[in-house]
Design brief:
alpha+beta, two-stranded antiparallel ribbon, two-stranded antiparallel sheet
């Protein structure tokens, strides 16, 4: 049987615990739900761009936040 997964918008407060558990699988530094909450509070609400001294785009932040979820069985 094949498992199907989809993406949904991140539920900011509800998804911190699961996100931290997933990140701890491969990050060498332990990540907690509280740490994710603190980091998230320091990010811009919308994307932010950075222009260099020549007026050229030098950086950009994007906040595409999604969570992977297993889709219910019976949906094909």
């Amino acid at each position: 049987m094949t498992e199907h997964y989809g993406l949904r918008p991140l539920k900011v407060l509800e998804d911190y615990e699961g996100s931290a558990a997933l990140l701890n699988v491969f990050f060498s530094e332990p990540i907690s739900a509280e740490r994710l909450k603190e980091d998230d509070a320091n990010l811009y609400e919308v994307g932010h761009t950075y222009m260099d001294d020549n007026g050229l785009l030098a950086g950009m932040t994007a906040r595409v936040r999604r969570a992977s979820v297993r889709e219910r069985q019976g949906r094909e």
